[in-house]
Amino acid sequence: MASIEHPAPANAALDDARPPDLSYPALFLRFLRFGMMAFGGPVAQIAMIRRELVEEERWIGSDRFNKLLAVMQVLPGPEAHELCVHLGIRAKGRLGGLLAGLGFMLPGLVLMLALAWAYTRLPIQGTLLGAAFLGVQAAVIAVIVRAVHRIGEHILLDPWLWAAAIAAAAASLAGVSFWIMLPAAGAAYALASTGRHALAAIVVALAIGVAALTWTGGAGAADGAGGAREVTPTTLALFWAGLKGGLLTFGGAYTAIPFIRNDTVGRGWMTDAQFLDGLGLSGILPAPLVIFATFVGWISGGLAGALAMTAGMFLPAFAFSLLLYERLEAVVEHKRLQLFLAGVAAGVVGLIVVTVVDLARTTAARTPNLVVSALILAVALGIIYRWRSKLATPVVLAIGASAGAVLLR
After folding, report:
1. Which of 12, 161, 206, 307 shows a CA-CA span of 20 to 30 A to 291?
2. How does it sit in the membrane (predicted)?
C-alpha cells in the first residue's frame, strides 16, 4: 500500500521539531481534548496550543509557530482552529488536518446544539429565564464593545485605516452593501498607503457610483431589526450565510456579527434578542467564538440549519490550510495582498461598530428597566476592561444573568 504523503515544511532543514508518530484516532483524540479545554476565547486557546505542542511536545519550533500565527491572523477565520488544522496536517497529512480541526470544534458544536435545542423548548418570554437573558443581552453588548476596541487596536494602525473604517461605517448607515464597501476599502487603502492617492480616489469614486446605482434605501448591512419577513430559509441559504461570515471574519470572531446578523435578523429568520442570546451562550462554551453561528442556524432552520451554517462558517478555516498548506507562509511576504486585507479588516471594524450601536438600541427598547440594563452594561464594561482573564467573559455573562433574573422580571 502506498504511504500517505505528509507535507514537509519549506524550511525543514531549519526546523527539527516534529510531531510524534500518532495514529489517526489518537490524533483526533488529542485535538478533541484541546476542544474540551478551549475556554476563554482565542488568546487562551492559542496559549494552550503553544504551551503543549510547541514548548512541551515540540510539534513545531517556536519561531515557525510565531510566523504561522502571523499568517493565520492575516487570513479570515478563527486562528486557534486554523492552527489545529495546520498542525494536524503537519502530523498526519491532510486527513490528519481534517481530524484535528473536527476534534477541536466538536465539543463546542455538541454543547451549542444542546443549548439551542433547550432554548427553543423552554419558556422564555415573561419568565425568570427570560429576565436572565435580558441581563445577559446587556452584558453581551459590553463584551462586544471590548472586543471591537481590542480588534481596532490591532487593525487601525494608521490614519488611512481609520479613514477606511469611518467610511465603511458611514456607507453602512447609508445602506451600501458590504460587497461594495469592503473591496473598495481594501483597494483604496492598498493604493493610498503606497502613495498612489489618485488611483485610490478613483477606486472610491467608482465605489460611490456603484453604490448609487444599486442603492435601494434603508439601513445597510448593520440594520437587521427591520428586515422584511421571509419564508423559512433553505439549508443552502443558511450555509451561504455562514460561509460569508467565515470568509469575512478578520481580526476576531466578533467581526462576523454584522454579516451573520444581516442575513438572518435582517431577513426576519430570528430576532435581535435571540441573536444576542446566542452570542451570550457562545461566550461560556469551550469553542471558537464563531460557534454562535450554530445557535443562529438552529433558530433559523432547526438542526439542518445549524449544521449547514456551522459548515459554512468553518469551511474557510479548514480550506485555507488543507488547500494551501505549503504556500500559506508566502502570504506574510505578499505586501500588496496584506495591504488589501488590512483595508478590508478596517472596513469590517466600521461595520461592526454600527452593528453594536444597533444591537444596543434594540436591547434598550426591549428592557423593562433601562436603568438596570445600563448598570449591568457599566459593571460588565468595568470588569472586562480591568480584569484581563479568560474568565472575564463568562463571569460578566453570569453577573448579567443573575442581575437580570432579580431586577428585570
Report:
1. 161
2. Multi-pass membrane protein
Domain ranges of the chain: 15-109, 125-407
Q: Cell 483595508 appears where? A: 343
The torsion angles phi and psi of 195, rounded to 5 degrees, stand at 90, 0
Angle, in degrees to the nearest 10, between helices 370-386 and 128-155: 40
Q: Cell triple for residue 137?
A: 443581552
Question: Can you state the angle between helices 24-36 and 79-119, rounded to 10 degrees?
Answer: 70
What are the Cα distances from residue 279, in Å, to 53, 131, 270, 359? 30, 16, 13, 12
pLDDT value of position 230? 56
Q: What is the per-residue pLDDT across 68-111, written as a single tens digit (0 to 9) for each?
A: 877 787 778 888 898 999 999 999 999 999 999 999 999 999 99
Which residue bears the cell 440594563? Answer: 373
| Integer Rg of the chain from CA | 21
DSSP 285: S
